[in-house]
Amino acid sequence: MHCKGHSYPKYHGSPPVTSSTRATLMNNDSSKGGDGSGPAECDDSYHENSELIVALSTGWYADGSRCGDKIRITSTKMGRSMMVKVVDECDSRNGCDDEHDYQPPCRNDIVDGSDVLRKLPNMF
Q1: How far apart are CA 58 and CA 66, in angstroms?
Q2: Which pTM does this prediction carry?
Q3: Is pLDDT above 90 for 1?
């Protein structure tokens, strides 16, 4: 897939989930008008950046089967963990179009967290 002069792969799965599966934490503004491009897939709602929420790569999102689930994320840098709620998908198969706000597809190892996750002291 080509977007903004770059080529991006389309992923059809994500690494298997275990207690030690590595992921890349990205930042996503899920509020209305934010960079999330639309309401969350799980509840068709926008979310405040103060909520402990994430969007998962397509494979981990598993057709919405993890919607509303609390998952544990752990900082490999700080060794601390927290529980966050799955509310959305970070699409690993599609992108670069109006529906995706012309953003490229996500990699297959993405946990796209709200602003508050990055701002928590001593977490990341």
Answers
A1: 11
A2: 0.87
A3: no
